[in-house]
Amino acid sequence: MPELSRFFGIVITMYARDHPPPHFHARYGEHEVLVDVENSQLLRGSLPRRAQDMVDEWSALHRTELRAAWEALRSGRPPAGIAPLE
Of 28, 45, 53, 59, which is the most buried if we count CB atoms within 10 A? Predict the structure, then answer.
């Protein structure tokens, strides 16, 4: 489970053998969501509103890096880390 980024208590990960569509996991405390890389659509789960807003902002800023991370994992390579939200 490669950790791609961490900010304000939110941990962003992707899994090499995960199912399409390309997505990432965001965890905040006991909450978890799956978010579509292409459109930041929430696929499953829920976060507190403020945490969700930060994940939405971060994913919009880093869509290209998220696509590259998904492709790297699917090709058996480790993904590069992605800058946190500041």
Answer: 59
Tokens read off for 51: 């945490």
Residues contacting 42, CB < 8 A, separation 6+: 33, 34, 35, 36, 52
- The backbone region for 8, taken as left when phi is positive above 0, alpha when psi lies in -120 to 50, beta otherwise, is left
Phi, psi of 79 (to 5 degrees): -80, 155
Alpha helices (H) along the chain: 49-61, 63-74
Q: What is the pTM of this model?
A: 0.95
Token readout for 31 is 């909450």
Tell me the per-residue pLDDT of 13-52, one tens digit each, with 9 for 90 and over.
Answer: 999 889 899 999 999 999 999 999 999 999 999 999 999 9
Beta-ladder partners of 7: 10
d(CA 58, CA 9): 13
